[in-house]
Amino acid sequence: MKKQPSKSSKAAADVQETKAILNSMEAHLTYSISKYSALATTHDWYEIAARTARDRMAERWMETMQTYYRDDPKRVYYLSLEFLVGRTFSNAALNLELHGEFKQALHELGQNIEAVSEMEFDAGLGNGGLGRLAACFLDSMATLELPCYGYGIRYEYGMFHQKIEDGQQVEHPDNWLRYGNPWEFPRPEVLYPVKFHGRVVQFTSEDGTLRHHWVDTEEIMAMAYDTPVPGFGGKTVNNMRLWAAKSSRDFDLRYFNQGDYIQAVADKNASENLSKVLYPNDSTEMGKELRLKQQYFFVSASLQDILYRYKKHHATWDELPNKVAIQLNDTHPAISIAELMRLLVDIHGLGWDHAWNLTTRTFSYTNHTLMPEALETWKVSLFEAILPRHLEIIYAINFQFLRQVMHTFPGDNELLRRMSLIDENGDRRIRMAHLAIVGSHTVNGVAQLHTELMKSTIFSDFNRLWPGKILNMTNGITPRRWLNQANPALAELISANIGTGWIRNLDELQKLRALAKDAAFRKAFGAVKRANKERLAAMIEETLHIRVNPDSLFDIQIKRIHEYKRQLLNVLHVITLYNRIRQGTHPNTAPRTVIIGGKAAPGYVMAKRIIRLINNVAEIVNNDPLIGDRLKLLFIPNYNVSNAERIVPAADLSEQISTAGTEASGTGNMKLSLNGALTIGTLDGANIEIMEEVGEENFFLFGLTADEVARLRASGYNPWDYYHGNTELRQVLDMIASGYFSPDEPDRFQSIVDALLCHGDHYLLLADYASYVACQERVDALYCRPEEWLQKSILNVAGMGKFSSDRTIRQYAEQIWHVGPVPVC
Ligand code: 26V
């Protein structure tokens, strides 16, 4: 094992820098907080440290913006309803390569950097994978020096705070701005009006063309809040611009002069509700008016801002696609396509065909799910009431599009019905995915399998019409947050052995392959994992008052709770182990700690029931004297980005067990493997590519393939066959149904068993059960051979180079956006 001093070595703080940081912090104590240090709370110290870090980004941020303004490169706008950023302080300090200095300066002030960092509220402005991906992308775009902007909504309340009461999820509001947010810069002067409702009047202009006016509208103002996004090394600092709704009443004195002052102020609050809360749903479309208004609100403000910036440099619109690339993060911002058409045609007077040409060369769209129930549609009637002009524009786009389909595939009315932007079955609905595809030049999936399935199933007609339009961009994660920040001890060990190049170029982790054979390295690697497990055990003891054994196998499933992700299959395995231990049929293998974390959408009854089942099973298992330390089951409440940073580094086993063909990519799978967990997984999403990279021998594969799933479903799947054919499975299901885990209410979980046995087991848990349990036996056996386990664990880390979001973003930049780095000088 080589030892080599590393630049990022957190121990070696630069004395000069430390002094400067110390001075800034003392100045902020006086001038920002105005307290004597004896009175300053830990939260005050956080505020002081954050402002000091922010000051260090400000100059580069301004220089970055100035460079973009001066050079006018093609810019990328990432439009997303969600940015799941988490905490910023440690990330900023690390990306500025000043973490050691902050730690030392805080130490000299009598503060501990970890305790100070913990004061920060997560910016939980997202549900799960899609929102976190957007945050990883911002980090990579800045690190790669790309001229990119994130646009979204500044929700006053982010993802709800999950508490577990009586085993059940209870949602509490996430008032994350309660103590202010030192990272954001309000821009009260960056303000755009956004219209809703009203009606459309047609008129003929002087040159004889038919024009449209959208009149009698209600207006809400969008105000910008900017947050700096530092790349690693801190040279480029990009901007994330989030919009907050402000009442237009504030800007229009007439309302206050008309007499009903109280009503005027009350109305003002109503319009400001628009950016109040994030919709905590990521599975089923709910078609709510407020959600549609949120989408249009942020789309309209963002497009006005983008066009304003374009206009500063250009007299005509012809260069728009050469200067502006807009990425639609799922269909949530897809109304952009109709809005850009409206702005170009109605406001700026371009002809329809010209505007359509510019629009379709500007947009590209990422799909994140194949689940039919998550594909967005809007009732035509609702849409018409809120955005009447956009509905007309969508009809016009559809008319032209269907004419093209008809021309290419004459006489196929069924095809027209399937491809139309309007679903005419039942209540008429607008298919936002179809609008996004038709209005974009490129569409992408987020993992190879997902992209292939998009092409062969949900979007097969579009793939036939426009072969080559659908590309794959396999997801990635930022190694800055998910290794350098979350797992400082492992980052340190890796840097000491292969240098720090991996932070920018994750492929360098390959160099660890040789070290997997090095006993001394393995020992050091094992010690890091062990320390991370102790840290997590301490957190668990503090929050759940349960003591777990850090020597046990930490078996971890952290993600949103959803039937397709099959947390229930995990529970079936836990109960199987429980029975085996009690019956004395479990070989005397490694003790296990099964940890599950995740939020259920508040209205998703089955997901909430599964959480309750996990907690009820945990109650029985954890308190059974026959089980002792051999098995523990824990549900970690309020899984979020900062909890993930604690949990991920401590994992031995990563559960990626979705029904093949359902998980578009997964990114938690990447985070866990990057931190040395071995994966037990199906051939689904990015698991397939992870297995290719780390080697089949270092991956626990089980279950049906996506093809087999499709065939089994088509041939008439009968869950009862598996129930009758497997004694252990039958015992497990009977226990759940009989109330073994809910003695106070024996039929509490009947509906869960019914979903499996009587309602078709849509996600084929029973079909995969035997294969899963057998695979878990292989996991157990390997865990009892620690040297081999460690070797495979190291090989997992070594194989993760591909899954850096830097690679993903480079592919988007080259193949979709056609932009290159713009170094800031
Ligand atoms: C859908 C909906 C539906 C209606 C209401 C609000 C709402 C909000 C978000 C979503 C998106 C669900 C799609 C999603 O999060 N997909 C995940 O994307 C990850 C990043 O590409 C990917 O790794 C996960 O596999 C995929 O489930």
UniProtKB/TrEMBL annotation:
<protein>
    <recommendedName>
        <fullName>Alpha-1,4 glucan phosphorylase</fullName>
        <ecNumber>2.4.1.1</ecNumber>
    </recommendedName>
</protein>
<keyword id="KW-0321">Glycogen metabolism</keyword>
<dbReference type="InterPro" id="IPR011833">
    <property type="entry name" value="Glycg_phsphrylas"/>
</dbReference>
<dbReference type="InterPro" id="IPR000811">
    <property type="entry name" value="Glyco_trans_35"/>
</dbReference>
<dbReference type="GO" id="GO:0005980">
    <property type="term" value="P:glycogen catabolic process"/>
</dbReference>
<dbReference type="InterPro" id="IPR035090">
    <property type="entry name" value="Pyridoxal_P_attach_site"/>
</dbReference>
<keyword id="KW-0808">Transferase</keyword>
<comment type="function">
    <text>Allosteric enzyme that catalyzes the rate-limiting step in glycogen catabolism, the phosphorolytic cleavage of glycogen to produce glucose-1-phosphate, and plays a central role in maintaining cellular and organismal glucose homeostasis.</text>
</comment>
<keyword id="KW-0119">Carbohydrate metabolism</keyword>
<keyword id="KW-0328">Glycosyltransferase</keyword>
<dbReference type="GO" id="GO:0005737">
    <property type="term" value="C:cytoplasm"/>
</dbReference>
<feature type="modified residue" description="N6-(pyridoxal phosphate)lysine">
    <location>
        <position position="671"/>
    </location>
</feature>
<dbReference type="GO" id="GO:0030170">
    <property type="term" value="F:pyridoxal phosphate binding"/>
</dbReference>
<keyword id="KW-0663">Pyridoxal phosphate</keyword>
<comment type="similarity">
    <text>Belongs to the glycogen phosphorylase family.</text>
</comment>
<dbReference type="Pfam" id="PF00343">
    <property type="entry name" value="Phosphorylase"/>
</dbReference>
<dbReference type="GO" id="GO:0008184">
    <property type="term" value="F:glycogen phosphorylase activity"/>
</dbReference>
<comment type="function">
    <text>Phosphorylase is an important allosteric enzyme in carbohydrate metabolism. Enzymes from different sources differ in their regulatory mechanisms and in their natural substrates. However, all known phosphorylases share catalytic and structural properties.</text>
</comment>
